Amino acid sequence: MTTSVTCGKDRESDPSGPPQTQYGWPHQGNRNRSHVAGRPSGSCFVRSSHRGNHVAKLGVSPWRLPLVGNAWHLLVHPLTFLRQQRELGDIVEFRHGNRRVYFVNDPVLAHEVLTGQRANFPKGGPVINAARALGRNGLSTTTDESLHHRQRRLMQPLFHHSRFPAYIAAMRETVEEITSSWREGEKVRIDSVAYQISSAVLSRCLFSGKLGSNATRDFMTLYPSVVGGIGRRATLPMPWLHRLPTAANRRYTRDLATIHRVTDQLIADHAAGDETYDDILSALLEARDDDTGKTMSESQVHDEVVTLISAASETTAQTLSWALRVLAKDTELDRRVAAELQGVLANRAPRHQDLQELPLLSAVVSETLRLYPPLWLVSRYVPNETELGGVLLRAGSEVYISAFANHHDAELFPSPEVFDVTRWLPGAPTPGRGAYIPFGMGTRKCIGNEFALAELMTTLAIFLQRWRLSPQHGGRLSKPKVAFTYGTGPFTLVASQRRSGPPEH
Ligand code: HEM
C-alpha cells in the first residue's frame, strides 16, 4: 500500500475531472489517491492508495433483524447507522429486507462506482424504480443510458453561462417580492420561506412566472406526500404493504396522478398561448438533437419538467434553510459576510459577475452543503457480478453512497462537526477525490449545480444585505429531519433591519 502527502499548493490536475465552477467553488478534488489514512498538522492530506494489490476491507453489518434485515436501523436512525457502517470497512454489506446492499464508504471506490466503472453500476434497482413513478424517463430517473446521454446533451444548454444573468434577475425579483412585506421584528418561518423562494424561482425560470405559478404551487403542495410514498416504497421492503387500500396508499396514488395531470395541463397551456416565452420549458420544447434534428417527444418534455421541479426545489430550499440557521446562530460569521457584501456590492443587488467576488459567502454555501448535504444518499444497481477494490459484488445487489457519511468523516474533514468556512477559502486544500459530493459525481452528477449555487448565493446576499435573522428569544431550533432529503425541520427566526429599502439595481 502506498502512502503520500499532498498539500494545498501541489494539487495534481486531472483533465477528466470536473471543471472548477463559475464561482471558484471547489468541487471534489482530483488527486489519484485512495482512502485517507490520517492527516498531519496543517492543511495537508495523508492518503493511502488502493492501487497495487491492496484489497478493500469488506465488512458485514451486524445489526440484522429477521424479515427487515438492517432496514429498520436505516429507517429509524439513518445518519447514525451510516456512521456506524463507516467503522466496519471500505465496503460494507447489509440487508435491506431480502435485498443485498453494499455501502461504499471509501471515497475513491465511490468515485470509481460513479465514474470509472459507471457502466457496471447503472441507475436502477428498487430505489430508482420507486422514484420512476414520479420522474419516469426524466434525466434523473431514466435507466436507459443512451436516452440519458441524448437528454443530457439536449438539456445542458439550459445551464449555459449565457442564461445565468436572466436566471439571477428572476432570483433577485423573487426574493425581493417575498421579503418586501417583512417588517422590523417579523417572525419568519424560515423553512417555509425557503421552500416558497425555491418554488417561485423555478416557476419563473421554467415557465415564465405567472403561467406556472399556480401549477408549481399545486405541484409543490402534493410533492411531500408523493415523495413520502416513494420513500416508503423504496425503503420498506414489503411490496404487498404498498398495495393495501390504506389511506396513505390511496393518497399517494391520487396525488401522484394529480401531479402528472397538472404538468400536462401546464405544458398544454404554454403551447396554446400566442406569447413566446424565453423560459426553460420553451427551450425544452425547441431543443433539437444535433444528430437526428428531432425534438423531444411530449412525454419526454413532461418527464423532464417533473424531474426539474422535483430535483431542484426541495434540495435548494433545504440548503437555504440550513445556511440561514447557521448564520442566525453565528453572529460573528453573519457580520463578516454582511461586511463582504457591503464591500463588494455596497447597496446594490448582486449580479451574475458579482458572485465570484464573494469568497466568504461562497464558502458559507460550500460548508453548508458539506455539513448538511440535502441528498444524503445515492444508489446504484449491480446487474452483473462486479469487482470493486478487489471485492466481488453480487449480481442483483445495490450500492449506496452517502455524501453525509463522507462529509462527516474525521479522516476526510478534520473536526467534521465544526462549521468551518476556512476549508473553502482561497488557498485551502482541495478535498480528495470522492470526498466532497453534495452534487454527486460523473455522468449523473447534478445538472443544476451552478443554478443551485447561484440561487443560494443570490438569495443569501439579498437577505443579508437587508436583514439580520436571529433565533427567537428563548426559542429553540427544531430537530433536523431526515427523509428523502436532510432538512432543518420547521423553525422560526426574527428579522431585524440592517438597512431599509430593497437593494438598488
Ligand atoms: C442544493 C441543491 C441541489 C443539490 C444538493 C442537488 C444534488 C444532486 C445530486 C446528489 C444528484 C445526483 C444523484 C445521483 O447521482 O443519483 C443530482 C442530480 C440531478 N439534479 Fe440536483 N441538486 C440540487 C439542485 C438542483 C437544481 C437547482 C436542479 C435543476 C434546476 C437540479 C437538477 C438535477 C437533475 C436533473 C439531476 C439528474 C442528473 C442526471 O442524472 O444526469 N438539481 N442533484
UniProtKB/TrEMBL annotation:
Region (Disordered) location: 1-41
Keywords: Heme, Iron, Metal-binding, Monooxygenase, Oxidoreductase
Pfam families reported in the protein's UniProt record: p450
InterPro entries to which the protein is assigned, alphabetical: Cyt_P450 (IPR001128), Cyt_P450_CS (IPR017972), Cyt_P450_E_grp-IV (IPR002403), Cyt_P450_sf (IPR036396), Cytochrome_P450_Monoox (IPR050196)
Cofactor(s) recorded in Swiss-Prot or TrEMBL: heme
Binding site for heme: 446
Segments passing through the bilayer: none
GO molecular function: heme binding; iron ion binding; monooxygenase activity; oxidoreductase activity, acting on paired donors, with incorporation or reduction of molecular oxygen
PROSITE patterns named among the record's database cross-references: CYTOCHROME_P450
Domain of life: Bacteria
Family stated for the protein in its record: Belongs to the cytochrome P450 family.
Name of the molecule in the record: Cytochrome P450
Annotated source species: Amycolatopsis alba DSM 44262
